[in-house]
Amino acid sequence: MRASLIQMRVDEDESVDSRRRRAASLVRDQAGADLVVLPELWTTGAFAYERFGTEAEPLQGPTHEAMAKAAADAGVWLHAGSIPERAPEGTLYNTSLLFSPSGEPAASYRKIHRFGFDKGEAVLMGAGTEPVTVRLPGTTVGVATCYDLRFPELFRSLVDAGAETLVIPAGWPERRRSHWTLLAKARAVENQAYVLACGTAGTHAGVPQAGHSIVVDPWGEVLAEAGAEEEILTVEFDPARVATTREQFPALKDRVLGLAPPRRPL
């Protein structure tokens, strides 16, 4: 299976419309891939909080339209990263869009864990409530977004729902890049799954981005890693290795669920 992670540069001097057209062109250039992935909030920038409201769009807005057509033109499964979605009742969400090779909507995912510690995304956007998996030919994809990467419980629920490949678009800051690679490897090892983590390049509202999109196999080995600048990271991987890994080292079978809370010290 061939995946292409489009590590786009997101700069303030490029309009959203221009970047949308550029993203569609980059997707079309990946014809021949099986799966293409864009980063988190690439229309606005993950830290451009003041733009979330002004650039928010309905689920089936202009980005949906452009990405559906690009997926169909390229004939690829497309994880189109995420957009600031404005729901009908007015709530904003950080929402990922996924499309089939015919351009049909395959799924959407509202980010569950919002970053900001009581400011920024954490107060401007609503929280999603439902983990999402999508069945592709040859593998089941589990979807998460950026800050979700720090919460292993979400990934366990995705694995329980059949996920074998974990796809994580992000707008991860450069100052915590070591966490990005560490957590991507950890999620791969503990879940015995592939991790495809696609970040952004450039600077979002003064926050330099980490880049370094990464693909990790079920044993924690890095198959490919991008640099800091705009780049398309393309990698071949074998989804069948997930079942083989879980059979050879069946750690997931030894999970102990429903533990009682620890006793308080006397």
From TrEMBL:
<keyword id="KW-0378">Hydrolase</keyword>
<comment type="similarity">
    <text>Belongs to the carbon-nitrogen hydrolase superfamily. NIT1/NIT2 family.</text>
</comment>
<dbReference type="InterPro" id="IPR003010">
    <property type="entry name" value="C-N_Hydrolase"/>
</dbReference>
<dbReference type="InterPro" id="IPR001110">
    <property type="entry name" value="UPF0012_CS"/>
</dbReference>
<feature type="domain" description="CN hydrolase">
    <location>
        <begin position="1"/>
        <end position="239"/>
    </location>
</feature>
<dbReference type="InterPro" id="IPR036526">
    <property type="entry name" value="C-N_Hydrolase_sf"/>
</dbReference>
<protein>
    <submittedName>
        <fullName>Carbon-nitrogen family hydrolase</fullName>
    </submittedName>
</protein>
<dbReference type="Pfam" id="PF00795">
    <property type="entry name" value="CN_hydrolase"/>
</dbReference>
<dbReference type="GO" id="GO:0016787">
    <property type="term" value="F:hydrolase activity"/>
</dbReference>
